[in-house]
From TrEMBL, chain A:
Subcellular location: Cell membrane
Native source species: Chelativorans sp. (strain BNC1)
Full protein name: Binding-protein-dependent transport systems inner membrane component
Residues passing through the membrane, by range: 9-30, 99-119, 131-159, 179-197, 236-261, 281-307
Membrane topology summary: Multi-pass membrane protein
Source species taxonomy: Bacteria, Pseudomonadati, Pseudomonadota, Alphaproteobacteria, Hyphomicrobiales
Family, similarity comment: Belongs to the binding-protein-dependent transport system permease family.
Automatic annotation (TrEMBL), chain B:
Limits of the ABC transporter domain: 19-264, 352-605
GO molecular function, one term: ATP hydrolysis activity
One GO term of the biological process aspect: peptide transport
The name this protein goes by in its record: Oligopeptide/dipeptide ABC transporter, ATPase subunit
Membrane-topology annotation of the record: Peripheral membrane protein
Family, similarity comment: Belongs to the ABC transporter superfamily.
Origin organism lineage: Bacteria, Pseudomonadati, Pseudomonadota, Alphaproteobacteria, Hyphomicrobiales
TrEMBL record, chain C:
A Pfam family the protein falls into: BPD_transp_1
UniProt record, GO biological process: transmembrane transport
Family: Belongs to the binding-protein-dependent transport system permease family.
Membrane topology per record: Multi-pass membrane protein
Gene3D superfamilies: MetI-like (1.10.3720.10)
Record keywords: Cell membrane, Membrane, Transmembrane, Transmembrane helix, Transport
Cellular compartment(s): Cell membrane
Record's protein name: Binding-protein-dependent transport systems inner membrane component
PROSITE patterns per record: ABC_TM1
Organism taxonomic ancestry: Bacteria, Pseudomonadati, Pseudomonadota, Alphaproteobacteria, Hyphomicrobiales
GO annotations of cellular component type: plasma membrane
Transmembrane segment boundaries: 25-45, 88-111, 123-144, 209-230, 250-272
Residues annotated as domain ABC transmembrane type-1: 84-273
InterPro entries: BP-dependent_transpt_permease, MetI-like, MetI-like_sf
């Protein structure tokens, strides 16, 4: 087991390296020129040339990659072109805010998804199954902003019970204003739901069909013991394995959700950087999100190894 | 337990019968898979239910547990120790499962929960049904594990299923079933899928359980030999009808139904005196059950009356009944099986020469800086040759390396050392790297015909492919040739446009054979070609292969890989016995089947449950097969050998001994010592072969 | 013992297995309308989607303007109809390219195994270690904001995901004996890949495509909502939502209408995908 975990951690380092390399390459090697992107369409060749000098773009790509990676490892994410300030402090609070959002959504989502997945699997083909399955299929297909705006319209504008915007005043902790978190958390949680439910449902159906569940039934055990002790243990394993991936997708979805609610997280920082063409911030935020994604996957891997005796021994 | 019967065949209710099944009919949707089945099992009695796939035997087993799983019992009653199973509400039924009736399943690997320790899996039922405490239940679990003869029960309780071997897992399942001392124990193919030596020890355990308790056994099997060994009475199921029932010895020796007879003649025996014969035709469609005898379409002695009305159970003798109008003519009119042709080694030119072939599968790498896991040593220096027109059987249990050997010959894999020569040419390479002529000359027939045919191609495309590829045939010439080949494997022209899913298992394997022979091969590697098929189909396919070999213009040789010694006896000229990647004995079929043999060969033969009781050795192998990653030193069989000579066995590789020309075995005992040891055991044996 | 008939039913050609279901009666018309919007938008909405009309600013739905007007007086209905192309064609093209790439890669990796598989899949893993939206955004921003680059970005996003699914199936099929039979015959790798393997992974690829189209629609709408890949005054649905969001308090139709359109199309995609799955890979429900 330790061996597998060490292996996964090693893999994580490798993935992070690959991700940083690819991020850097997409930004620096694809046909678009960074200086031109930063300056926009109206820039003159001289301006572009000056900026290239200033950003050190005339050096070989690999040299720049190595120094960028080295800076990042030392915690230096560079200076924002737009604000002229170091990026690191901006990233820290934004990342924290985003993690709060993602974590709350995950905590809300997982138990509900396991419950729904189990119920639909046990009542396969019944009206409960059909309703839940159709609902999850529909929420799966809706973009994050449609879900978010629907919630804003219903709770923020028509019912006027919750704030439709989630701006946080500078220096305040997101949890100090719990009300503003409700709608964004709900949106992210609903977004995570369908995939979890489907995987849990499939896993549980497989488990209920298995010979070992038949053995448990024929041992005379009551249905709740069969479901909770025999089926659930194996049935949720596939769902646990994808928690990391779902979390990652949710982090991607955060970009939209944070924009919808004007929530000051890392996604919103990235979007505003995109419209301002602030390449250093774009690069750093992408790196951070990808890193969070990779770490999430690692944690999920470790949990599923711990839960599965076949992998543990 | 012989009962009196009314003329209609309805048994008089036995007042104290443990299990009474009366007129049971079960259907899944439109398919009536079990129809009007009546049977009784008395306390302490073992009743065997024999049938091929589709006979409904497992359906009956599960319905006795009250577990229909989507099916409906449209008629009939099941009573166990006075409880009416089919009418009980779930809550009460649950109370019976375990204390009154329990079950041992086929495929113990899947029957056990992979993420719960085996001790807990035994203990939880005890706690639930008796209200025992945790410690008490676990103590009982340890006791049970000890009873099923697993070593170190205190250690075993804490293991997970995947940490046990197949035979050990089945012992756990048996312990689980015995936990609450049920009145009825159902065994659903308990040894199918296990190696023959493991099967023998599991059957011994069941025999012992039967002797020491008064439990009634319902033993479900497709293997007539197993039933013959284990059961007092048998019932024969065909397509959902109980067609014959009676005392085991009587039914198996004087079968009074054409189907039973056919089934018995289809079983290949290691005694090998009789030729096996298949049953033509296939299972009827159970959504539209014919009015008369269900076997009529495949029966060679059927008369008009057979199709007119349901056939009642007719009493053959007290306690022996048959659902056949012509049971009296059964013995007279059906051709008696013919004596098997004696096969002997041929002295044609050498087709295939395998010389000290080695193959190991490297273990997965763990971490970059650690050593990789040890390699699986699948083949450790194997040498043999096959002559033109000859059939060489390669026998062994799982993990012996026999399949790997076949794959190397066919070029599906490449050896790590040694050479393979075909007709004198070196073909030690993947088939892709061989010449077109060599590709064409060596063909392969796979174990599982269901996966050997591309589901998206028609029979015409499948059989035509080698003809296009090797012979460049096209158009009408191609078609003509395909029809010809299909006829040769007894499939008509109408099969041309069929897709694999429209074929039965036997028909699929015929298509595979047709594809192999379309290339006009000079060597065919057959990898367990009948192990996925029913016995009656197996016999026909084996006959087919023999006919094709006899009639082939190229004197086609077979390398026949199998675990079934009965099949070996029937079709092989010579036999190679493999254990842990080595050939331990090689010789003419008659030399392999006659004493003295290598101790492993002896144990293999002793383990085969035979239809007719024989004066065979009762040798059993204890312990588990050593890991192929770390084969034992000296003689690789020494860890399990019952004829261990001494320390030399674990220290030095055994020398080669020969008892006849062309025979070789590797053992530290010389031939005469082995002979003496083996006859001594037979003389000392006081108890008969059948308990 | 019932398995034989169940597995046989999955082999019947899909079209012969088709049965009309009530849901088809809803799906049919919606698909027809979407196709009209894509093929002949000018025919069902003759007006201009981009021309300003200061006199008709922010008129609520009903009356002359079926779905109201926006702040520049543009008819929302016309913009929705003309917005189908920039939203959906991009999504469709991106999904198709991605799934084709993914199918080829997955098939190759699953069939070849070993080092080829390892190399290809590690590359796919690296691509997959970016959340979808982030990777798509990054690519479009760096390549330049235009529809072709959005197609490329979507394709890159779906490529590894498709490849993984197809690879799993291909690995399973590649282990079947009929592939080994082709090996023993000495068939070329190309023959095995395209004649033996492809037919078996085709169903999965088509089902995957239906899923990816749904997902691509969502992603393309999200990108345009973020203002990535499209520029005003293009009437892409996501962009319309973004522009309308500032008026959500008093002109909610500017958000509701495009959102609802996206929702309808998305749900249609899901249902269509499910029908397709029923036809191509019927789960053996209730047969056991």
């Amino acid at each position: 087991m330790t061996e597998m975990i060490i292996r996964r951690v090693g893999l994580l380092a490798l993935i992070l390296f690959a991700v940083s390399f690819m991020t850097f390459m997409i930004v620096n090697v694809l046909p678009g020129d960074v200086a031109a992107v930063v300056l926009g369409d109206g820039a003159s060749p001289e301006q572009v040339h000056l900026l290239r000098e200033k950003l050190g773009l005339n050096e070989p790509v690999l040299t720049r990659f190595v120094s960028w990676l080295g800076d990042m490892l030392r915690g230096d994410f560079g200076v924002s072109l737009l604000y002229g300030q170091p990026i690191k402090p901006m990233l820290a609070t934004r990342l924290y805010n985003s993690l709060v959002l993602a974590f709350l959504a995950l905590v809300l989502s997982v138990p509900v998804a396991i419950l729904l997945g189990t119920v639909t699997a046990m009542k396969r083909g019944s009206w409960i199954d059909r309703i839940i399955s159709s609902l999850t299929a529909v929420t799966f297909a809706l973009p994050e902003f449609v879900k978010g705006l629907a919630l804003i319209l219903v709770f923020g504008i028509w019912l006027e019970v919750l704030p439709g915007s989630s701006l946080i005043e500078a220096g305040r902790h997101p949890l100090s204003q719990p009300l503003i978190l409700v709608l964004p958390v709900l949106t992210v949680a609903i977004g995570m739901q369908p995939y979890f439910v489907q995987i849990t449902r499939a896993g549980m159906i497989e488990a209920f069909r298995s010979d070992y569940v038949r053995t448990a039934v024929l041992k005379g055990l009551p249905p709740h013991v069969v479901a909770l002790k025999h089926a659930l243990r194996n049935g949720v394993l596939p769902a646990v394995a994808v928690i990391g991936m779902t979390l990652g997708n949710a982090l991607g979805g955060l970009v939209v959700v944070e924009t919808v609610f004007s929530y000051p997280g890392i996604g919103q920082l990235m979007v505003s950087a995109i419209s301002a063409r602030d390449v250093p911030i774009i690069q750093s935020t992408v790196m951070i999100v990808a890193a969070a994604y990779a770490v999430g996957n690692l944690l999920a891997d470790i949990v599923s190894i711990a839960l599965n005796p076949r992998l543990r021994y | 337990m012989i009962q009196q019967r009314l003329p209609t065949g309805t048994p008089i209710p036995l007042p104290d019968a443990t299990l009474c099944v009366d007129g049971l009919s079960i259907s899944y949707g439109a398919a009536k898979v079990v129809r009007d089945v009546t049977l009784r099992i008395a306390p302490g009695e073992a009743y065997g239910l024999i049938g091929e796939s589709g006979s409904g035997k497992s359906t009956i087993a599960f319905s006795v547990m009250g577990y229909l799983n989507g099916g409906t019992a449209s008629a009939g009653r099941i009573t166990i120790a006075g409880h009416d199973i089919l009418t009980l509400p779930d809550r009460k039924l649950r109370r019976l499962r375990g204390p009154v009736v329990s079950m041992v399943f086929q495929d113990p690997m899947n029957a056990l929960n992979p993420s719960i320790r085996v001790g807990e899996q035994i203990a939880e039922g005890i706690r639930y049904h008796t209200g025992a405490g945790k410690a008490e239940a676990e103590a009982r679990a340890i006791e049970l594990i000890d009873q099923v003869k697993l070593p170190e029960p205190e250690d075993i309780v804490r293991r997970y299923p995947h940490q046990l071997s197949g035979g050990q897992q089945q012992r756990i399942v048996i312990a689980m079933a015995l936990a609450l001392e049920p009145a009825l124990l159902i065994l659903d193919e308990p040894t199918t899928g296990l190696d023959v030596t493991t099967e023998a020890t599991i059957l011994d355990l069941i025999t012992e359980i039967k002797q020491r308790s008064n439990v009634a056994l319902l033993f479900i099997s497709h293997n007539l030999g197993v039933v013959a060994r284990m059961c007092d009475r048998v019932g024969v199921l065909y397509a959902g009808d109980l067609i014959e029932e009676g005392p085991t010895a009587e039914v198996l020796q004087r079968p009074s139904h054409p189907y039973t007879r056919g089934l018995i003649s289809a079983v290949p025996s290691i005694a090998g005196e009789l030729e096996m014969v298949g049953i033509p035709g296939s299972l009827p469609d159970l959504t539209e059950v014919p009015k008369g005898c269900i076997f009529r379409a495949r029966c060679s002695i059927a008369i008009a009356a057979c199709g007119e009305a349901p056939v009642p159970m007719e009493t053959v003798r007290p306690g022996h009944a048959s659902r056949c109008l012509r049971w009296r003519d059964c013995l007279a009119e059906l051709n008696p099986p013919q004596a098997a042709a004696v096969r002997a080694p041929l002295d044609g030119e050498k087709r295939l020469e395998i010389d000290s072939v080695i193959r190991s599968f490297p273990g997965a790498r763990r971490l970059p800086f650690l050593k990789p896991r040890p390699a699986v040593q699948a083949l450790r220096g194997v040498s043999l040759d096959i002559r033109a027109g000859e059939t060489l059987a390669v026998v062994g249990e799982s993990g012996s390396g026999k399949s790997t050997l076949g794959r190397l010959v066919a070029g599906l894999d490449r050896p790590a050392g040694g050479t393979i020569r075909f007709e004198g040419r070196d073909v030690t390479a993947l088939s892709r790297e061989r010449t077109v002529d060599d590709q064409r000359a060596v063909q392969f027939i796979f174990q599982n015909p269901h996966s050997a045919l591309n589901p998206h191609h028609t029979v015409e495309e499948i059989v035509g492919r080698p003809l296009r590829l090797y012979l460049g045939l096209q158009g009408t010439e191609l078609r003509r040739r395909i029809v010809e080949i299909l006829r040769a494997v007894r499939l008509g022209e109408r099969y041309m446009t069929r897709a694999p899913h429209e074929l039965s298992g036997g028909e699929k394997q015929r298509v595979c054979i047709a594809r192999a022979f379309a290339a006009e091969p000079r060597l065919v590697v057959c990898d367990e070609p009948t192990s996925a098929l029913d016995i009656s189909v197996q016999a026909a396919i084996l006959q087919e292969l023999q006919t094709l070999q006899r009639e082939s213009a190229h004197r086609t040789a077979y390398m026949f890989i199998t675990h079934d010694l009965g099949v070996v006896r029937q079709i092989a000229d010579r036999v190679a016995v493999m254990y842990l990647g080595e050939i331990v004995e090689l010789g003419a079929t008659r030399d392999i089947f006659s004493r003295p043999q290598h101790p492993y060969t002896e144990a293999l033969l002793a383990a085969v449950p035979e239809l007719r009781p024989t004066r065979a050795s009762r040798m059993r192998l204890q312990g588990v097969v050593p890991r192929p990653t770390n084969p034992p030193s000296g003689c690789s069989f020494h860890t399990r050998c019952p004829r261990l000579k001494g320390d030399i066995c674990s220290q030095k590789a055994p020398p080669t001994r020969s008892k006849a020309s062309g025979h070789a075995m590797r053992c530290h005992h010389d031939i005469n010592t082995l002979k003496a040891l083996q006859s001594a055991e037979l003389e000392n044996r006081t108890e008969p072969a059948r308990p | 013992m019932q398995n034989a008939s169940a597995s046989a039913s999955s082999q019947i050609p899909p079209l012969r297995r088709y049965r009309l279901r009530p849901v088809d009666l809803v799906l049919g018309p919606v698909i027809l309308v979407v196709f009209l919007m894509l093929l002949v938008p000018g025919w069902i909405a003759p007006g201009s989607p981009t021309e300003f009309d200061p006199m008709a600013s922010l008129i609520p739905p009903g009356g002359d303007y079926l779905l109201g007007t926006d702040e520049f007086g543009r008819d929302v209905y016309t913009r929705i109809v003309h917005g189908a192309r920039p939203t959906l064609i991009v999504a469709f093209a991106g999904a198709v390219v991605g799934v084709i790439l993914g199918t080829l890669t997955g098939m190759l990796a699953g069939y070849a195994g070993g080092r080829v598989d390892e190399t290809l899949m590690r590359f796919m893993d690296a691509l997959m270690s970016f959340p979808t939206l982030i990777l798509a955004t990054l690519i479009v921003v760096m390549l330049g904001s235009n529809p072709v680059n959005v197609v490329a970005a979507l394709a890159v996003v779906f490529w590894p995901r498709s490849a993984r699914i197809v690879r799993a199936v291909a690995m399973d099929v590649a282990r079947r004996a009929f592939i080994e039979a082709a090996w023993v015959r000495g068939e070329s790798h190309l023959f095995i890949l395209f004649r033996e393997l492809l037919p078996s992974v085709m169903n999965v690829a088509v089902i995957d495509l239906s899923l990816r189209i749904t997902y691509a629609t969502m992603l393309s709408a999200s990108l345009s909502y973020l203002g990535v890949g499209v520029h005003p005054p293009t009437p892409a649905w996501g962009l319309m939502v973004k522009e309308g969001q500032q008026f959500i308090q008093f002109a909610s139709w500017l958000v509701v209408v495009p959102c609802t359109t996206i929702a309808i199309v998305a749900v249609t995609c899901v249902l269509l995908g499910e029908r397709l799955r029923e036809l191509l890979a019927p789960a053996h429900r209730g047969e056991q």
